[in-house]
Design a protein that fits this description.
By secondary structure, this protein is α+β, with helices and mostly antiparallel strands. Helices cover about 50% and strands about 20% of the residues. It has two domains: about 30 residues; about 40 residues. Strands 1-2 form a two-stranded antiparallel sheet. It is elongated, with a radius of gyration of 20 Å. About 0% of the residues are buried. This is Lipopolysaccharide assembly protein A domain-containing protein.
């Protein structure tokens, strides 16, 4: 009788080169790659108004800061939910 190699319950996985990889990890890698590509493709300068001052920055730097703030907020929310 053959043994079951996959867990009966747990996160969905895909076998890649003999290793089980979670679908969540694959999704994260794809989204991170798309975000990096999008940031690298947008290099023109933009003018941004921050309440009072107006600054001119390359768009890639604005997108990078926005991405990092989004990641930080996501981690904060996930950490708070895990504590409950």
């Amino acid at each position: 009788m053959a043994r079951k190699t996959a867990r009966e319950y747990g996160p969905p996985t895909v076998t890649v080169k003999g290793r089980d990889v979670r679908l969540r990890t694959i999704g994260f890698v794809l989204l991170a790659g798309a975000a990096i590509w999008f940031i690298a493709a947008n290099t023109k300068s933009v003018t941004i108004r921050l309440w009072i001052p107006t600054v001119t920055l390359p768009l890639w730097s604005v997108l990078t800061v926005t991405l990092l703030v989004g990641v930080a907020l996501g981690l904060l929310v996930a950490h708070r939910r895990a504590r409950r």
